[in-house]
Design a protein that fits this description.
Elements (H helix, E strand, L loop, with lengths): L1 H25 L3 E2 L4 E3 L18 E3 L7 E2 L12 E3 L7 E2 L12 E3 L10 H4 L7 E3 L22 E5 L6 E2 L9 E8 L5 E2 L9 E8 L6 H8 L3 E7 L22 E5 L2 E3 H13 L5 E5 L2 E3 L20 E5 L2 E2 L20 E5 L8 H6 L5 E3 L7 H7 L10 E3 L8 H7 L8 E3 L20 E3 L18 E3 L17 E3 L19 E3 L10 H6 L5 E3 L5 E2 L2 H9 L3 H4 L9 E3 L15 H4 L1 H25 L2 H15 L12 E6 L5 H13 L7 E3 H4 L6 H10 L1 E8 L1 H5 L1 H16 L5 E5 L13 H9 L3 E2 L7 H13 L1
Parallel strand pairs: 2-3, 3-5, 4-6, 5-7, 7-8, 8-9, 9-11, 10-12, 11-13, 13-14, 14-15, 15-17, 16-18, 17-19, 18-20, 19-21, 21-22, 22-23, 23-24, 24-25, 25-26, 26-27, 27-28, 28-29, 30-31, 32-33, 32-34, 34-35, 35-36
Antiparallel strand pairs: 1-2
Length: about 775
């Protein structure tokens, strides 16, 4: 009984274990041969067991792990990257990472960690990336967390709600960071010099809702930070106090405001802040909102000098709530005199006032992509003396429609060398246009044009007309060095004689089916060709060319992966480099020669066989039979004109004409005989004469002799009469043996005639004159029968 209970208990335990462990095993991470393991979205409750030193990267993000134990990762001594983001981790044992001395990337973001321990990071001397964003901790702990992380380059800390405090000791030990991201959205306390311990920071991304501690942070970082990025901040209440800034010579070269809300008043305060520090070269506004009318109150404008050092201004996706009531910004024109690069994208700009354009005296680069510019407003913006040093102008994706007007409008820009007017709706192109004299680069991609004309300036060095509806390109551009013409409908490469200086050609995604060695060689200066993703016809010539040219990889930048066969169908989708066609397709001349030779031999053999087996005779008989089938089997009685048709050899004509004709036609009553020499109708086809004579004769007399058998004409007559008479099974043939002949002398093909001679009585001409009278009597009797 006890044995039965023991068995039941074991089975129950095994079943329970299989239910509990089965899903974990099924959800274990998948690893590739390089040791990169992916265990995302597997509903894992804990770190899988059995991880070994072969694991180099382990991603367990988006699971349900809540706890990390000391033994979970002890076998992963070669682990380089550990990603545990978006789990529910609320506790990590002290020595959980002690074996991870090679770890370089650790992501613990968006978990439930309330307290951080320096013991976790102490063994991680190789760590370069650490992400602790989105947890529940309020501060970075009682002791410095990162003092042992001497190789750390990227650090991300804080959270949107719970993180409220930055302390002076928090970043102790960190001397250099490429990137520091702090989510201080709910920051309530900032100890002075909390960030000053970091001696060098390339980029600080600071997320904070209110600018309460902005000036203190700025002061601490002024001597160590190169790029300050402010995110999700409402600057409505920002007020600049000059007394807060003791150091005006800072390292900060770039300011970025991302998703920041600004008013007219706070913008003025920002200008004052930038004026008090020197060295700022670039200012960027990304996704910002200006809640105002542009009524900037900047007093003592003459005293603002340092802001004039800004060389680059970038504005992307700027939202102005009261856009159509916006001022002309004339109050800040004087601040733009030294700006060299301006980018204003996706901000609904429809006009740059002429006065502002004239103030931009140092401007070299202007990008107004994705706005509302039209030719009329562009003419106002590019007025006389506007942008005098401008070299690059980008008007991509605006509302321009006329190439002719666009070119004329920009004639005032004497130094313009690069123009991008792509993604405008030009459609057509006039025959001629005017452009700035120094223009070297023109981008007309995505403009829906279907042909190119001399409107394109001949002095260009770079032309981009990709992604249009072009089916040909025949412009003469003697100075062109780079041509981008992908995504069109071209069927062949351009004529190289029109582009003598071409170095780069991008012509992928057209309808080109082939190109030859001669075409490539004609581009004597070509250094790079991108012609993949076309409809290549993998003919024998094209494949042979690609096999023989081993240097193709040096000039074809996308060879061989983007060169696929489109036809023949049997090789569609294969790489041109790997395609091989059957020998029958690539050696057609040799194949045709071989077939012709075989056919000639067959014809010769057939001729020999036909001669040997009388095939020609059978063909003649077939034709005679076809002719005879068109006539009635028997002529009506009224059409029978002769008593007998006589078939004989010309050598036997004396006997026929002087003896048989005299004996029969002068008999009383006389017999009417049909002789070919006398009665055949001149000019009528011989076959028809024979057929008609036989059909119009009551009997057919064959005068058989050695001469008859040898005579071609007699053979021919006998051929047809043999077929006609014996096929109808009648008894109209009379055989006269003029001289003794061997039966074997009669050709084998006259099988019925040979049979008749074997089975039927025939008349034999007697040499004895006393018996000749009986011969004539028997012949007359046979004719009458």
């Amino acid at each position: 009984m006890s044995r039965v209970l023991w068995t039941v208990w074991v089975l129950g335990a095994v079943t329970k274990l299989s239910k509990e462990e089965g899903p974990d095993q099924a959800s274990s991470p998948s690893c590739d041969p390089m040791g990169v393991c992916d265990g995302r979205f597997r509903s894992l409750k804990s770190i899988p067991s059995g991880l070994t030193a072969a694991v180099r990267s382990l991603d367990l993000s988006n699971n349900e792990i809540t706890y990390i134990r000391n033994r979970d990762l002890q076998g992963c001594v070669n682990l380089k990257a550990l990603k545990l983001a978006s789990n529910g981790i609320n506790a990590i044992e002290k020595d959980s990472f002690i074996s991870l001395r090679s770890l370089e990337h650790l992501d613990l973001s968006y978990n439930l960690l309330s307290n951080l321990s320096s013991s976790w990071f102490r063994p991680l001397s190789s760590l370069k990336f650490l992400n602790l964003l989105g947890n529940r901790y309020k501060s970075l702990g009682e002791t410095p967390l990162f003092s042992q992380l001497t190789n750390l380059q990227i650090l991300k800390v804080g959270s949107i709600d719970s993180f409220t405090e930055l302390q002076e000791k928090d970043f102790a030990g960190l001397t250099f960071l490429e990137e520091l991201e702090i989510d201080a959205s709910n920051l309530q306390r900032y100890e002075p010099e909390s960030l000053k311990s970091i001696q060098n920071i390339s980029h600080l991304a600071l997320r904070m809702k209110q600018p309460v501690f902005l000036l203190e942070i700025f002061v601490d970082l002024s001597r160590s930070l190169k790029h300050l990025e402010l995110r999700d901040t409402h600057l409505n209440t920002f007020h600049f106090s000059k007394a807060s800034i003791r150091e005006t010579n800072t390292l900060i070269k770039k300011w970025t405001f991302r998703n920041v809300k600004v008013t007219d008043g706070s913008f003025s305060e920002l200008v004052k802040l930038l004026n008090c520090v020197s060295g700022v070269l670039e200012v960027e506004f990304e996704g910002c909102t200006l809640d105002g009318l542009g009524d900037f109150d900047i007093s003592d404008m003459d005293k603002i000098k340092n802001i004039g050092g800004i060389e680059t201004l970038i504005v992307r996706r700027l939202a102005i709530q009261y856009f159509y009531s916006f001022y002309d910004m004339s109050s800040i024109y004087s601040l733009t005199a030294n700006v060299k690069r301006v980018t204003v994208e996706s901000s609904k700009v429809f006009l740059v006032p002429c006065l502002l354009s004239r103030h931009l005296k140092s401007l070299e680069y202007l990008d107004l992509s994705d706005n509302l510019m039209v030719e009329e407003s562009l003419g106002n913006s590019a007025c006389e003396q506007a942008w005098p040093l401008l070299q690059t102008l980008i008007l991509r994706q605006n509302r321009l429609k006329s190439l002719e007007k666009t070119g004329e409008t920009l004639l005032t820009l004497k130094n313009l060398t690069k123009l991008d007017i792509s993604k405008n709706n030009y459609v057509s192109m006039p025959e001629t246009c005017q452009w700035p004299d120094k223009l070297k680069y023109l981008n007309l991609s995505n403009t829906r044009i279907y042909s190119v004309t001399r409107c394109i300036p001949s002095m260009l060095e770079i032309l981009d007309i990709s992604n249009n509806n072009l089916d040909s390109f025949s412009l003469i551009l003697p100075q062109l060095k780079e041509l981008y013409i992908s995504r069109n409908k071209l069927k062949t490469l351009p004529d190289a004689s029109f582009l003598p200086m071409l170095h780069v050609l991008r012509i992928s995604r057209n309808t080109i089916s082939t190109f030859t060695k001669e075409q490539l060689d004609s581009f004597s200066t070509l250094e790079a060709l991108e012609a993949g993703s076309n409809n290549f016809l993998c003919s024998c010539e094209f494949l042979s060319f690609t096999w023989e040219q081993q240097s193709l990889a040096r000039i074809l930048t996308d060879w061989p992966d983007n060169y696929l066969c489109d036809s023949p169908f049997s090789v569609r989708g294969q790489r041109v480099k790997d395609t091989q066609l059957p020998a029958s397709e690539c050696h057609q001349v040799a194949l045709v020669s071989a077939v012709c030779s075989v056919l000639f031999l067959l014809i010769l053999l057939t001729g020999v066989l036909c001669h040997h087996f009388h095939g020609l005779w059978y063909l003649k008989m077939m034709w005679a039979w076809l002719q005879a089938k068109r006539k009635p089997r028997k002529a009506p009685p009224r059409d029978v004109c002769y008593d007998a048709f006589v078939s004989y050899s010309e050598h036997d004509s004396y006997w026929v004409e002087n003896m048989m004709v005299q004996e029969l036609e002068h008999f009383d009553p006389p017999f009417r005989l049909c002789l070919h020499k006398r009665d055949f109708i001149p000019g009528k086809w011989i076959i028809d004469n024979i057929i008609d004579s036989i059909e119009k004769s009551h009997k057919t007399i064959f005068v058989l002799s050695e001469n008859f058998v040898k005579s071609e004409w007699c053979k021919y007559e006998l051929d047809f009469s043999h077929f006609r008479l014996f096929d109808e099974n009648n008894d109209a043939a009379i055989l006269i043996l003029l001289e003794p002949i061997e039966k074997k002398a009669i050709p084998q093909r006259f099988c019925k005639l040979r049979k008749i001679m074997n089975t039927k009585t025939y008349l034999e001409w007697p040499t004895d004159e006393t018996q000749q009278e009986g011969f004539w009597l028997n012949l007359r009797t046979a004719i009458k029968s």
